[in-house]
Automatic annotation (TrEMBL), chain A:
Pathway: Amino-acid biosynthesis; L-histidine biosynthesis; L-histidine from 5-phospho-alpha-D-ribose 1-diphosphate: step 9/9. InterPro entries: Ald_DH/histidinol_DH, Histidinol_DH_CS, Histidinol_DH_monofunct, Hstdl_DH. This is Histidinol dehydrogenase, chloroplastic. The keyword Nucleotide-binding does not apply. Coiled coil: none annotated. Belongs to the histidinol dehydrogenase family. Catalyzes the sequential NAD-dependent oxidations of L-histidinol to L-histidinaldehyde and then to L-histidine. Keywords: Amino-acid biosynthesis, Chloroplast, Histidine biosynthesis, Metal-binding, NAD, Oxidoreductase, Plastid, Zinc. It is found in: Plastid, Chloroplast.
TrEMBL record, chain B:
GO terms for molecular function: histidinol dehydrogenase activity. Its EC number is 1.1.1.23. Residues 28-39 have a biased composition (Polar residues). Belongs to the histidinol dehydrogenase family. The keyword Zinc applies. Residues 40-52 have a biased composition (Low complexity). Its cofactor is Zn(2+). Residues 23-52 are annotated as: Disordered. Keywords: Metal-binding, Oxidoreductase, Zinc. The gene is HISN8_1. This is Histidinol dehydrogenase, chloroplastic. The keyword Ligase does not apply. It comes from Stylosanthes scabra. InterPro entries: Ald_DH/histidinol_DH, Histidinol_DH_CS, Hstdl_DH.
Amino acid sequence: MKSYRLSELSDSELQSLKARPRIDFSSVFSVVNPIVDDVRTRGDAAVKEYTWKFEKAKLDKAIEIVSELPDPVLDGAVKEAFDVAFSNIYAFHAAQKTPERIVENMKGVRCKRVARSINSVGLYVPGGTAVLPSTALMLSVPAHIAGCKTIVLATPPSQDGTICKEVLYCAKKAGVTHILKAGGAQAIAAMAWGTETCPKVEKIFGPGNQYVTAAKMILQNSEAMVAIDMPAGPSEVLVIADKHAIPRHVAADLLSQAEHGPDSQVVLVIAGEGVNVNAIEEELNKQCQSLPRGEFAAKALTHSFIVHARDVLESINFSNLYAPEHLIVNVEDAEKWEGFIENAGSVFLGPWSPESVGDYASGTNHVLPTYGYARMYGGVSLDSFLKYITVQSLTVEGFRKLGPYVETMAELEGLDAHKRAVTLRLEDIEAKFQFST
Amino acid sequence: MTTMMKINIYSAISASTNWNRSLIPPNRNDTIRPSNFAPSSSSSSSSLSTNTLSNRITCSSNSYSINTYRLSQLTNDEVLGLKTRPRIDFSSIFSVVNPIVDDVQRRGDAAVKEYTSRFDKVELDKLVEVVPELPDPVLDPHIKEAFDVAYGNIYAFHAAQKSSERSVENMKGVKCKRVARSINSVGLYVPGGTAVLPSTALMLAVPAQIAGCKTIVLATPPAQDGTICKEVLYCAKKAGVTHILKAGGAQAISAMAWGTETCPKVEKIFGPGNQYVTAAKMILQNSEAMVSIDMPAGPSEVLVIADKHAIPSHVAADLLSQAEHGPDSQVVLVIAGDGVDLNSIQKELSKQCNSLPRGEFASKALNHSFIVHARDMLEAITFSNLYAPEHLIINVKDADKWESFIENAGSVFLGPWTPESVGDYASGTNHVLPTYGYARMYGGVSLDSFLKYITVQSLTEEGLERLGPYVATMAEVEGLEAHKRAVTLRLQDIEARKVSR
């Protein structure tokens, strides 16, 4: 792994370290645009054709109504694990509900924000050979808490046309209403436009490959009237380790990210002196060799790097610049550094908080901003499935107090009808008072 | 009213009408594809002509008709046609804007100055002003007072949106929470040139200030003498804006998204604007510029629900205050129940429109607006939810009690003394709101728009011992062995330490 010492880098060298590998969007867009258009025009027929072409699965029915599907039977220990995860994820997201509160900064002028669920949402769960019930939970649990009425979960079927039973278990548990057995850009397009059988959704969530991501980006700018959670790229982790971090744990954390795929981003930041970097690298080699997905991991590691920082503060400053999807802070008294963290998707503090716990079951969401988007996006949350509507209600008294100021401002802005909507009312109030006195 | 009661009422209504069924989530037998039914504004009247009653108003020596429909007589498809906004030809706008976006990426300030000269007819030496270095503008005192009052209300409403950090420990030793962090640098677009919009400056800058964004760039097209509106500057200074970019249109959005020699690069861009501004925002959010936007924006719109208690001159005034924004404003009047004096409303529309400086814009907007008759409040709100208006005025008796039935709207105005104008300027709510039907999935600008929430978890040894085995099981199901190992190695070490004690 390449290694740098922060204090020796120039500004431009530093800037280039934070950059992610360039993704050639325009060529991906040129592949995806025709699929998006085709699904719009030909609906289910197009989706089934692409599913046969890419997934090698021939389907009669692209859509299943979840309540009509038989409950899958899971291995006892597996069911228990997903139940525990469900419970923690549910608790964490339910705690995000905000109470409605009226603000009356001026007497008689009452304002508040009320939450309403987005009516129909689409959740993308990668499938085919991948098995990702954890992603099904991460997306459907907050949708369920929010109260979304239509929840479509799209996931590519395996070649025999079935979907992973653990995904189905989680979908049923979390109140998913429809399963769309399709993947890729065609699944995103089906949910965005609606088809003969697939409900049209108003917002689409979830990780996915470049084609899925490109479809989301294209459709959010299209006539489909759909929003997306965030742009997504290859998964990434930045680990900050000091001399207290155990080398084989550090190596395990780096590898758990690297195994996602050859384009995963893995960064190790050494905070201060006394860290046995050799031991970490030895552990990386040793553990990587015995991994089933070792080949992916090794490829990912070839473009990962190590950064030496003078102390935890310099480490965190670099991490803020990099804005990682996952940030592991494996240092002494990790909690006290939390206030310095500015940009990250999800943070893991201390020696007993590997990224895996957040990926599966701590309760936090694992659908997080990558590629540096952590600078301005947060991960999926309860709010992602809601919209907040503002409500105002003025009494006669409040209106009489506020009205003249509104008239002044409307006049300044040359918006006479805006002013009049106030003036006419004020005149009527005056007239009523005069009439009654 | 509970959710169950609401659902029962919806079912009862749908049993007796055609169209309300569209609101119940589609099942296999309901095929709804709105994209099949997207009439342009000129064809809508002909396709529904059997059900319409035209109502004429006169304004600016022109005579306009407002199409009127009775909801209970419409089919599903016809109602869906009503909710559709006029189609915007994005691809042709994109083809105009893409070259500007690319040019600014390459040539920075030089490109921006050229476009400013071309479009705003202004030659500028300096594009970016550092706000603390600018002299305080002197405002007319009662204007200053008005903006101070607005600032006070907007500040209070947005500051109240701060959420407290709370740790969730659903399982002992497994602590999780969400912490808010401001987005470091933001760009706020305030239309300018001939328009004077200090209210928009407040709406964008105040929540940015409360959030604690370190760099706040306000972009606004300069007047022909190269100056910016002093009220905009006043609001900008008051709300802590750090930089002013004297530019507009797609070039201003691009400058902030890429950064230039003098303009700071921002991470998120906010604000209303014309089609070119909106297109630039949409293009750039999908580009390598690494920037996000608040929401897609379209022409401003209002839906007014009025019953027999609403005063006709007020209803007309509210419709016109939206219509005056521009010829493509969307204006919808929903009559709830009987006894509403529609004739009076139309007379008032004509009368008020004729004496408006912006009457010509208003009358053009009214020409493609429409009136809908609903049997009662519930039917009216159901239609409003379908339409998903940017602004929703509920000018009916006991308006508050209908609040919980509202599902889709940007901002809601309840009762007879709550015209949209108060929200546009000073009630405290934000006036940068989703249009075009985007209220179905976007909310208006808020404090949260300027923050991102980072999740934080911290496990004790005990917590990992408790949670770890489940994580290992799930990682194994998913075939992610290294994920499993990150847990099992730690559990082994914990065990080993116990044994050695």
